[in-house]
Amino acid sequence: MNNLQGKRILVTGASSGIGRAVAQQAASYGASLILLGRNKERLKATYDSLQGSGHEFYTIDITDYTRVDEIIRSSVATFGFIDGFVHSAGIEKTIPFNASTPNLFKEVFEVNVFAGFEIARLLSKKNIVNPSGASHVFISSVSAVSGEPGKIIYCSSKSALTTGIKALALELAIKKIRCNCVLPGCVDTDMVKKLFASIPIEAKQSIINKHPLGIGQPEDVAFLVCFLISDKAKWITGSEYIIDGGYSS
Length: 249
Description:
alpha/beta; 249 residues; Rossmann fold
């Protein structure tokens, strides 16, 4: 079992999907959670589902960095140091290359890449992060290392995230902060449901067929994330973990 007793973990995108599953699993292992998400009703549902105590939730646009900083400082003042961060928030766009404008790139990169690194920066400050050590885990995608038609924006953002954590891991090692990336394949989340609803049934079946073990569940990814947060992964940093039901094979 991944013992997270006494650890305080901030999770973005906690209102659904992988972020919700990570929060639930981490809480079951003894962690207390700071949940960030855009949908108040669904975020509250995540909060209500958590075991244990000391949890907080905030409905917020995570690109409002001033507000994020205020939340972090307030939480630390009340509950103490933060031990980990999971960046699960993300957006996906399936758009042909000839319709991929700079503004669309900026929109996706702002959430998938910039927000994750900025929150990591805020959390890495003295008197915020646990000086004994911490762990940052970024939810990327197998799309970071493979391509799909219409996904140049999404693939580019996830590739930037996956490569960036390697440099981040080197810089933050001196603070005993580990940084790793998880690259899921197609997981049964609201984002994937939305994607499937927007494409022809043949395209949907093609994606499913590319996963020999079938479409994943959020819990499948959450177990790996909780391991990387835990002290059992204390010698792992700058690494990427593909968890895709055989898609990349």
